Amino acid sequence: xxxxxxxxxxxxxxxxxxxxxxxxxxxxxxxxxxxxxxxxxxxxxxxxxxxxxxxxxxxxxxxxxxxxxxxxxxxxxxxxxxxxxxxxxxxxxxxxxxxxxxxxxxxxxxxxxxxxxxxxxxxxxxxxxxxxxxxxxxxxxxxxxxxxxxxxxxxxxxxxxxxxxxxxxxxxxxxxxxxxxxxxxxxxxxxxxxxxxxxxxxxxxxxxxxxxxxxxxxxxxxxxxxxxxxxxxxxxxxxxxxxxxxx
Length: 247
Description:
This protein is an alpha/beta fold. It has helices at 4-7, 11-14, 19-29, 58-62, 101-111, 123-129, 131-136, 138-145, 151-158, 190-194, 197-202, 204-220, 222-226, and strands at 35-38, 50-54, 71-72, 86-92, 112-121, 162-165, 168-169, 235-236, 240-246.
């Protein structure tokens, strides 16, 4: 069973593409005439020129909206595509779920004629800068330590890549891990947590003490006092990175 057959049931509601992040991905794809989306999920950030989406989870595939690109149930490590099948291949917030990273990256390089685009995160930066995992639920950070892919390793497997930061807008509408960095109360919502794999996979029992402490700090005003500097920022770099490899 794919991980997201159990974790992905709320994604259609909480994981909608943010236009500012979408613009960065579009710019990274540049003038690619056709795109394959690997680990496509429900189809967030797929440009109109996407010719195929690849996703292992039936639950995620079932949530793809009408009019989405054709989709196939398959894994990154064994893409059902010929060599040089599309100008660009993209893989967004997915490489940490792959069972064989080297095989998956090799497949992206095999299928892409010109470019590979990957959205991921730098775990060291994430741990240091994101208050939720640093101060309240370090267990989630510890879980991510077991699966986060070092950016340097990705660059090496890609044969070189440009790496740029992707700051998270304060009102980001895509509910991934740090999307609510300036809206802390959102992390108390079980549906929001269900759409964030590091929280959903860590487990509610493990998270409960930290979430209770967050609720207390919000009620007392301690969170606001401690993080007053964040409230004046429009965006925050918490480690999300866009990698672009030209082949």
